[in-house]
Specification:
- Chain A: GO terms for molecular function: ATP binding; ATP hydrolysis activity; transmembrane transporter activity.
- The complex is a heterodimer of chains A (about 240) and B (about 425).
- Chain A is an alpha/beta fold and about 240 residues long.
- Chain A contains 8 helices and 10 strands.
- A 6-stranded mixed sheet of chain A has the order 6-7-8-3-9-10, with helices on both faces.
- In chain A, helix 4 packs across helix 5 and helix 5 crosses helix 6.
- Chain B is an alpha+beta fold and about 425 residues long.
- In chain B, helix 4 packs antiparallel against helix 11 and helix 4 packs across helix 14.
- Chain B is elongated, with a radius of gyration of 35 Å.
- The two termini of chain B are about 40 Å apart.
- Classes of the chains: A alpha/beta (about 240), B alpha+beta (about 425).
- Chains A and B meet through helix 2, strand 5 and helix 3 of A and helix 2, helix 3 and helix 12 of B.
- The structure holds adenosine-5'-triphosphate and magnesium ion (MG).
- Magnesium ion (MG) binds next to helix 2 of chain A.
């Protein structure tokens, strides 16, 4: 065990016994119960399950957007149990987030939005940042829309800018929560396939929550949740078939 | 396995006694970060410049909001400029008479609070001061008020009389020098050109008719020329005359009791040293003052013994508070309506501190953008209002810098208050 740990890097995400409840005392409502989950390097994992089963809560814990309560979560080498606010902020910089809404800054152009993901790294120059933003916008098929503001783009284009922003900082992990929910079938499919292809090129693992049965085929593995627990793989399999 | 774990725990404990919290955690810490090179520290300027640029881009985006914010700061700015301008103008005019008296050193009774109600000091102090070799000359100055009859319409008004040895050259007033010979004649006076218009348009009459007879007190005098002093709180107009002529008008005045002593030093003498020696030489019933100190003493009376200073300070404060509330409102609603964006930035790894700098930068941008037009408008208003009220209103560099500092502080405080709203931007709510 000791030997294998040295030779192989730890998985980007390793959850052990993660339990989480909203509220406190008698009003505490458990939302996650003893969740065990690992994401391997470069792996694309889809997380499905009924509404209210705790998928979003789990994603916010992994993304260091919420403080842990019980259990252990190793994300990109950082233990989140008992991590300080500063440690969590630092970890977030190494994660690419894609939200249900694009959440682009309305007063910035597409390339400025993407460059925002790079401004935290103060070693880059402004020219480098814009160059990288343009390059990645070209990769998501928006090479000519760099100067457009979000309100001049279609929903699918905005979400592609959001994908570009998530990837721009060379993250070690992509977390996405229903990124296709606000899009129609076609552009939703385009966006996730684009995300998959770009992540594959870079070897970045993805953990993606979705209700959308049309995009299940991009996954290496599908994990189902129910009532705050991960459903064992044998029971989860039929989801993929159906 | 149990054995291994226990041994590992033991090892870590013996090897790393200073960092027990790392026990069992080392695998994670030793793992190389997936893609990033180790963090290098960039230019510290970027840490200020980038939030500033973000703030500016956000401000610029909503033109109407930016305009109302700038208008708010500008309003506060103009209000403070006008309050401080009036305050300074009133104090300046309150001390106009003393400011116009030009001499090296003055002696005054320490109990004189304000020049229009002077405590007298013995005339002999002037000759005692002459004992110092640095003192070239010392002359007594007499102050009094008398009624002046307007030669145009006969109305009467109190006028301030200043009598001293005009020939000695110890004390000067602007415009007095060419009149010195004329004022030797009996019953001649020099009239203050800047006296209020109620005294009659003496300047025009003098030009048209030449030397002008006027009634001062119960005596007919002759206006022989003009000096420039300006009305003060104690008197709406001034006339300057020789000591002899003064005694002719104010007959009841004892010659031995003087109101001020003006002193001229020999050229090149050290004024501060001379003042120190005068203090040693003269008894306790005189206060030795330089001209600026004399003015400051008079000004201090108006600042502390009257509510004038308070009224204008209060007005300025109100202006600043109104400005702060406006800026706070704008910044607050800016944050409130962009909570999603701020939460997104937090999710991307922007710290509270960084976003705080964005808000503060926005506040300081508003300070600068509001101050510049506020300054221009105030300068124009000073000119217009100053001409309408006979008040010496003028834009001074010191005041402009002071107002800028106040506006800057006002906006910074508003920014700090608005920053608290950033806490409501919770990145966990973003999914
Ligand atoms: N901030 C919160 N405060 C209290 N309860 C919450 C909060 N956020 C979520 N919950 C509750 O936790 C449970 C899990 O919510 P979560 O958002 O993780 O579900 P989900 O699986 O993402 O659902 P959906 O598929 O509808 O997005 C729900 O019952 C929800 O009501
Ligand atoms: Mg959800």
């Amino acid at each position: 065990m000791d030997g294998s740990r040295v030779s192989r890097p730890p998985p980007p995400v390793q959850l052990r016994g993660v339990t989480y409840a909203f509220g406190s005392g008698a009003l505490a409502r458990p939302v996650l119960r003893d969740v065990e989950l690992a994401v391997a390097p470069g792996e694309i994992v889809l997380l499905t399950g009924p509404s209210g089963s705790g998928k979003t809560t789990l994603l916010t814990l992994i993304g260091a957007l919420r403080a842990m309560q019980q259990g252990s979560a190793q994300v990109l080498g950082q233990e989140l149990a008992g991590a300080s606010e500063a440690q969590r902020v630092a970890l977030r910089r190494r994660i690419g987030f894609i939200f249900q809404q694009h959440n682009l800054l309305g007063f910035l152009s597409a390339r400025q939005n993407v460059a925002m993901a790079l401004e935290l790294d103060r070693t880059t120059s402004e020219a480098e940042r814009l160059e990288r933003a343009d390059a990645i916008l070209a990769q998501v098929g928006l090479g000519d829309r760099g100067e457009s503001r979000p309100d001049q783009l279609s929903g699918g284009q905005r979400q592609r800018v959001a994908v570009a922003r998530a990837l721009a900082g060379n993250p070690g992990l992509i977390l996405a929560d229903e990124p296709t929910a606000a899009l129609d079938r076609q552009s939703g499919g385009e966006v996730v396939r684009l995300l998959r292809d770009l992540a594959r090129q870079r070897g970045v693992p993805i953990l993606l929550v979705t209700h959308d049965p049309r995009i299940l085929d991009i996954a290496d593995r599908i994990v189902a949740m129910e009532d705050g627990r991960i459903v064992p793989a044998s029971q989860a399999e039929p989801v993929r078939a159906g | 396995m149990t054995l291994i774990l226990r041994r590992e725990g033991l090892l870590s404990q013996t090897l790393l006694p200073w960092a027990p919290e790392r026990t069992g955690d080392d695998a994670g810490d030793e793992a190389p970060p997936p893609t990033r090179p180790p963090v290098r520290r960039g230019s510290p300027l970027a840490a200020l410049w980038l939030p500033l640029r973000l703030a500016w881009r956000q401000l610029r985006w909503e033109k109407a909001r930016l305009a109302s914010a700038i208008a708010g700061v500008m309003f506060a700015c103009v209000l403070v400029f006008m309050q401080l301008g009036f305050r300074a103008a009133l104090f300046d005019s309150a001390t106009a008479l003393l400011s116009a008296m030009r001499a090296d050193i003055f002696l005054m009774h320490p109990m004189t609070l304000v020049s229009f109600k002077p405590e007298t000091l013995p005339r002999v102090r002037a000759s005692q001061a002459m004992a110092l070799p640095e003192v070239q000359a010392a002359v007594p100055v007499y102050l009094a008020q008398a009624t002046w009859r307007n030669p145009e319409n006969g109305t009467r008004r109190a006028v301030q009389l200043v009598g001293f040895d005009t020939e000695s050259g110890v004390m000067d007033f602007p415009g007095l020098a060419p009149l010195i010979d004329t004022l030797k004649r009996p019953d001649t006076i020099a009239f203050d050109l800047r006296s209020r218009p109620e005294f009659g348009d003496i300047g025009r009459l003098l030009r048209e008719r030449g030397p002008l007879p006027v009634q001062v007190g119960n005596r007919m005098m002759e206006v022989a020329g003009l000096v420039e002093i300006g009305p003060s709180f104690g008197a709406d107009g001034n006339i300057v005359m020789s000591e002899l002529n003064f005694r002719r008008v104010v007959k009841e005045r004892q010659v031995s009791a003087v109101d001020l002593v003006a002193i001229r030093l020999v050229p090149g003498a050290d004024r501060d040293a001379a003042m120190a020696r005068l203090r040693q030489l003269l008894p306790d019933d005189v206060m030795v003052l330089s001209q600026p100190q004399l003015v400051a003493h008079e000004r201090n009376y108006w600042e502390t013994a009257t509510p004038i200073g308070f009224i204008f300070a209060f007005g300025s404060l109100m202006g600043l508070i109104v400005g702060m509330v406006i800026v706070y409102q704008i910044l607050f609603s800016d944050i409130a309506s962009h909570l999603r964006e701020y939460a997104t930035l937090k999710a991307m790894g922007y710290s509270n501190l960084y976003l705080g700098r964005v808000v503060l930068s926005a506040a300081l941008l508003l300070a600068v953008l509001g101050f510049l037009p506020g300054f221009a408008i105030s300068a124009v208003l000073y000119d217009v209002v100053g001409k309408g009220t006979f008040l010496p209103l003028g834009m001074e560099t010191g005041r402009a810098l002071g107002v800028f500092a106040m506006i800057f502080t006002m906006c910074a405080l508003a920014g700090l208050l608005a920053m608290r709203k950033l806490r409501d931007a919770n990145p966990a709510d973003m999914f």
